[in-house]
Amino acid sequence: MSQHFLLSARARTLSVRKVMELTDEQAFQLFKEVRWGSDDKVACPVCGSVEKHYFIGTRRQWRCKDCGHTFSVTSGTIFAFHKLPLRVYLAAIAIYTNAVKGLSALQLSRDLGVQYKTAFVLAHKIRESLIQHRDESQLAGEIHMDGAYVNGSIREKNKKKDRIDRRLAVNQKPNKRCVFVMRQKVETDGNFIKGSNKTLTFVIRAENQADVNKLANEFVKKGSIVCADESNAYNLLHARFDARRVNHAKEYRSDKGITNNLAESYFSRFRRMQYGQTHKFGNQYLANYANEAAYREDTRRRSNGEIFMDITKKCAKTRTHHNWCGYWQGNKRLSERLGF
Description:
The protein has helices at about 15-20, 25-35, 85-100, 105-110, 115-130, 210-220, 260-280, 285-300, 305-315; strands at about 40-45, 50, 55, 60-65, 70, 140-150, 175-185, 195-205, 225-230, 240-245. It is α+β, with helices and mostly antiparallel strands.
């Protein structure tokens, strides 16, 4: 039997030690190359001019030839106004990359030797970069769909006479949300199933026909095969797609081979991230957590060095975010990401 990819040397092309051993100049050059390429031309974050701008070596900054704006390698990115060395931010991305089941802010703070508040914001900046630059083009082929509920658990009363029927809508928590996932199936040689290479997640209030139909029409190519469970939320999909259903009350896989196992495998990782790492998802950032689990599922067959470079590029392309610049001073998201 061949060796599993994650056990091979090809899966380990980066280590946190190598990143922490970078000098300030090496970290600077790495982030510069990721953001603008290997040549000497850089882009001004204010006017967008791409030139060999005046470089101020003592400050590691450039002065734009066109507008005169002075900027650094992180200006205009999610890491703008950083106070820690750039090497620490690269190390945070490396640690985040290696945490296949997610990463808590408390663990990140211990690994980096920074305050919990710093680690919390830093991890969320990475998540914000991932969701802003995810591929939202239409899915095609065979698509597996499902939904799972979070933040809806109600603790039972001690006395039986005080307990309520937690299945009734009137007794549900108002902040209960549904994470809806759509995964595109990929096959390699013959009938060998590789799994999924593209996952889209959305947060909706409940698994219902209106939201499911709207999301499917927007993000799934017409005529695709849609695999779902017996929930009536997917009944309308038969009009536009080749919808195939499996009744989980009777079986996990039908006699015709119909499953929605790709969606179930996503929720397996998502729940492990919830129970084992973060423990709690705030509704304001639930969409970011759900997308993080989707990204980790889609990149599970890529080396950690490749994932590190991909996340770093996404961070370099993400503009300075109001919700995470001065988060602990009050700049926080006031609303949640619902739908799309």
